[in-house]
Amino acid sequence: MHGLVRRVALEDPDRRFTRISHLLDRIQLHAASLESYPSLFSVVSRHEFDECYHLAAQSFVAESFADGFSTMNTNINGTHYMLAALRELQPKCRFYFAGSSEMFGKVRQTPQNEETPFHPRSPYGISKVAGFELTRNYREAYGMFAASGILFNHEGPRRGFEFVTRKITSTVARIKAGQVTELPLGNLDARRDWGHSKDYVRAMHLMLQQHTPDDFVVASGESHTVREFCQLAFSQVNLDYRDYVRVDERFYRPAEVESLVGDATKSRTVLGWKPTYSFPEIVREMVQNDLRVTLGLTERMKTLQ
Ligand code: GDD
Known about the structure:
Blueprint: E1 2-5, H1 7-11, H2 13-16, E2 28-31, H3 37-46, E3 51-54, H4 61-66, H5 68-89, E4 94-100, H6 123-142, E5 146-151, E6 154-155, H7 164-176, E7 183-185, E8 191-192, E9 195-196, H8 197-207, E10 215-218, E11 224-225, H9 226-235, E12 245-247, H10 265-271, H11 279-304
Parallel strand pairs: 1-2, 3-4, 4-5, 5-10, 6-9, 7-12
Antiparallel strand pairs: 8-11
Bound molecules: guanosine-5'-diphosphate-alpha-D-mannose.
Guanosine-5'-diphosphate-alpha-D-mannose (GDD) binds at residues 59, 61-62, 100-102, 152-153, 162-165, 167, 185-187, 190, 192, 226, 251, 253, 256-257.
């Protein structure tokens, strides 16, 4: 197992690799950047790979409105560079592209499946449509085993704090610990189809074990509002979200994806995939994890005082 990381991360492993510290003795890390074709080419020229999971991207939709240029440069060129380097050096390597339900954007049909037309609503969504089309083109033009997963939102305790689920569960824990008193959020009525990352990573792997490369929607088939997520997360600690959540215009997006819900029939039938986590289980696990981390830190701070 090999991984690509930024050079600065290699210089600060204790802080940068906390989420993979338990794996470090089993992976070889290489310094490379999605923005540099020579750096990717160099890694692909020095090692042989059976499968490549191209998950790296600027993945925060809100940031893509703030700096659309760097999102487009990194996401589109990064995908193109990976595909081009593999085609040149290791055309037999199987390639996975992380597509996104954000490609459906202003949805043309509900639920969304592999046939649903795309209508992205952000530079991020547009960059993912471009990556998806590049992947398909390399498959058709050069016969490469290049597959795309169209994954709906997938969450878990390792989620970044800027995404709405982790923002909610980490703030619930900080409210419980007496560190903050409110949770500012944007659109509470946005609907998302939330699943668990563990389940979704299994689907990615299955896609590369097939006889022929193809594209697959991975989703739970259930949609919930941000408000419902808040309700459930606060109820884990016996609080009412209405006492803490404050709507703040700053967290609204210039163009919103109002509602997403996926139809994963193809993944279920062709890949034999199905999710194992329910929506309440995901929320519970994330809140419990944040309580452990936050309250653990508070206790440790007290012993230091
Ligand atoms: N982040 C954030 N912060 N989102 C908020 C907030 C807030 O304060 N308040 C409301 N929301 C709403 C957003 O407007 C959006 O409708 C929804 O919560 C989910 O936002 P995110 O958690 O930031 O995720 P996302 O749906 O935009 O994108 C995620 O899922 C995609 C797959 O569908 C990311 O992981 C993407 O990289 C991924 O492709």
